[in-house]
Amino acid sequence: xxxxVRHAIYASAAAGLTAVLLSMLPWLLEAEESVxxxxxxxxxxxxxxxxxxxxxxxxGESADFYGLSSSDPDEWPRGLHGELIDRLAEAGASxxxxxIIFEDPGDDAQDEKLxxxxxxxxxxxxxxxxxxxxxxxxxxxxxVRDFRIQPIxxxxxxxxxxxxxxxxxxxxxxxxxxxxxxxxxxxxNLPVVALQAHAVPVYETFIALxxxxxxxxxxxxxxxxxxxxxRGLDELVRDIRRVFLADPTLKRRMLTALAxxxxxxxxxxxxxxxxxxxxxxxSRYLNYxxxxxxxxxxxxxxxxxxxxxxxxxxxLAGRVVxxxxxxxxxxxxxxxxxxxxxxxSGLNLSGVEIGATAFANLASSSSVVPLSxxxxxxxxxxxxxxxxxxxxxxKARQGTALALAAGIAYxxxxxxxxxxxxxxLPLVTPLGLxxxxxxxxxxxxxxxxxxxxxxxxRVALGHYVPADVANRLAxxxxxxxxxxxxxxxxxxxxxxxxxxxxAESLDxxxxxxxxxxxxxxxxxxxxxxxxxxxxxxxxSMVAIWAAARPDADLRRSACRATLEALREIEVFNAxxxxxxxxxxxxxxxxxxxxGNITVxxxxxYRAVGDIVNTASRIQGLNRQLGxxxxxxxxxxxxxxxxxxxxxGEFLLYGKTQPVVVHELLAPESELxxxxxxxxxxxxxxxxxxxxxxxxxxxxxQILERNPTxxxxxxxxxxxxxxxxxxxxxDWSGTIRMAVK
Length: 740
Known about the structure:
This protein has 740 residues and is α/β, with parallel strands linked by helices. Helices cover 51% and strands 17% of the residues. The strands form 5 sheets. Strands 14, 15, 16, 17, 18, 19, 20, 21 and 22 form a 9-stranded mixed sheet that branches. Strands 1, 2, 3, 4, 5, 8 and 9 form a 7-stranded mixed sheet that branches. A two-stranded antiparallel sheet has the order 6-7.
């Protein structure tokens, strides 16, 4: 056992290390994002739309309303955008993010209208375009320099802030967004600027917390009014980011200070979101809410043309409103990106929807968080070690079942933590690669060892039992080299009545011929139904049906062999006339030991166990009950296709525990008639309830129908016997047998 455990530990450690190496392969890292992360989104399902953001969609529906081109929305009159901004400001939007490029001057009058609306609102954040240029002289194709292309001066001057929003589409889908960078660690991207604009109501508390933990805030605006009048909010975000970059412990101190304040509810959530945004990494994984249209989306013209009552019904107060191209018809999509929720029709999420999603993730601190590299490697090692250990120490079926159950449990856990904690556990490596690889490898090793074991067992058993039995027992995966094996099976014991009297009347040669022919009939029936003869003594035979595990088919085969044997013995006896051998058979099922019995340096392979003794005692009941085939309840349990009737509960001679016995009936037997069986069941129930009169009445009714029913005769005699006997108070019908 120690060697087995030691080998299992070595194999498990090797599997764990292999899993670690596999998890570091670049293509697997890409597969985790393109396949594993998408699977988690699909299994989790869409989320409720965030309540702090909305999208105003420039699409074909609005183009048709204004009679403008839907193929070139950049050429729409900019005065329309000004009217939209006025409506959004009147509706109480906390910030208005224009996901539209305004880098070239247009019609002067239209530009003035838009610039005036931007200035009146004081809440507009404009998009900067980023142009990436490869860096000359560098070997890497990924080395680029970003150039920010800002809106024209009159728009930039009027806006609250400007910021870029660049989305990575490597390898296949948009899975991340930048909070700061790419080109500079303090360059605020659009979602963070939108977050700071939305969090203006808690700005003064945020600055107070910074001051409380020892940060010099003299260079920062001190009041909400100052920040609302500020032009260049993106520069303020950059300055605060630099404060956090300069002090890696600031996040911990800020969160501790926040926990000690009385601020609660949405205000606390906004403050925490600011701290995590400023102190976090340059990029985050998008936690998508669902397919296109999940984030609340309102057509452009509906808002721009809304009166005051309509605006109130649109419920935009306190929301950050993103304005941009968002077409619901795939053929007309322009600003669109592949994502985990891209549809088979080709419909993708628009850039403005992704921007709104990124902002909502930051505001609710719900971005997807992948495991750290050390945690991922530790998980890979532990997973590979655990699966390999289970497969090494357990049997193949048990280990496989446990490993598959562990895989299902891991998948359920991954979905749960993804949904509740936004934590992204890897799926492709542990479930798609490590689990099947370890299972296949372990099963191949076990199969090789099992094949060697079976061959050793087959050779050993072949000295004692028929070849087909040896092959079947060897196939059932016993321990190699064993001289005895604990199995599950059914034992049949037969006995020929009147054998002693018959033996007295025959010479030895005739007796030998008779008994030889008799056992040939019995043995053929046993072997014909998959059993083997384990022992023959005098006129009695012991036959076994054995397997490594409980098997209802084996019990059924033993019962059918019994019925066939009784039919063949009747034919055999009829041919011999007076020299017949009426036979009784008893069956019991359970565990038994097949092993070598050594007697004076001679070996015999025999069945040893309680079921052998019990089957013999059950067989002996046939003489008392006038029956031919009796079986234990354990033998016929669940075999509804066999015809039986309950005989009762007996404390057999030499036994300490009672046994429930049934009579096995041939299909053609009149005793198996439904009416007779029902009468006998009622009689047996009344007997157990001490209603001797009713039990006797039913039994006599059976005998009128079938005078040869030995079982009914037996219970009539029992009624007569126990009626005048002082029975114990707890007696429930058990009949004690004083003879074998």
